[in-house]
Specification:
It is a single chain. The chain has helices at about 5-55, 65-145. The chain has about 150 residues and is mostly helical.
Length: about 150
Amino acid sequence: MATPHSLKLLLEHAHKQTNDAAIHLGKLNLKLQEAETTLQLLVEYRENYQTQFMESAGNGINPIEWRNFKAFICKLDTAIQAQQKLVALTQQHTEAGNQQYHSQRKKLKSYDTLSQRAERHDQLRLQRQEQRQLDEHTSHKFSARGKK
């Protein structure tokens, strides 16, 4: 059986790993939120730009303005696709961080259970030892009275 000291060290290490995993998961969630916000802004910007261009195109535009619009929309579409890939990758990293966190919590709970069992075992052993000493003391007391 593991010593109380080694269990305490394992428990402390598991607490630290769980806290570190929680902090890391928080950072990953923040990155995901930022990536999703950026994607949403790009999509909204593209929609607004296209709407404004179509409104101004109703009055007529020259071929250079049309080419510039198409080139800019193409660049926006490329940026949106890249951001969508970044969001997907960030979601994968966040899910991996979430699994890591839950794995660390499970390990911590296991070590905590072991530590509690060891503590109960030690308390029971101490109680038995105290009871044995009390029984011996009582038996010596009665045997001493019988000799008098």
